[in-house]
Amino acid sequence: MDNNDNEFKEIIGRHKDFIWHICSSYRMGAAWEVSDLFQEVLTMLWRYYPQFDGRSSERTWIYRVATNTLLSLKRKVINLQDTNASIPEQIDNNVNAECNDLMRLIEILEEKDYRIVKAHLDGFDYAEIAEMVGISVAAVSMRLSRAKRKLRKMYEYEK
Length: 159
Prior knowledge:
The protein is 71% helix and 0% strand. It is an all-alpha fold. It has two domains: 1-86, RNA polymerase sigma factor, region 2, helix turn helix motif (Rna Polymerase Sigma Factor, Chain: A); 88-159, Arc Repressor Mutant, subunit A (Orthogonal Bundle), CATH 1.10.10.10. The termini are far apart.
């Protein structure tokens, strides 16, 4: 086992709970279990680890790889489903209904806005989100503000 293997294992060990959190926040319906998503993300992290140069934090790099992996899988799941089934079903009746409604609306946002809102909800600051998405901090602020307005209108329309 070489140093890269050990370094990778250490990074994963430090961030496995964070990776699990990211995987568990993506709804893929019955197609994927969280443990399967976790394994897919680990595979992609291992694949892209040689390209990780430390310019961003480990956490930011992990989030970027994980969300790209999960969004790619989500697109595949949606493409396999009926076009009428593109809005994910509520999966946990014990969760607060309004929170479930809001998460469903967030998932309907266009992909870039979805990624920005999810990263914001996951506790990343604007600079980290800007780095992950590849836009300026001002653009993150603007897109987040617009997404919030859009979500508010969508939510009010449904009620």
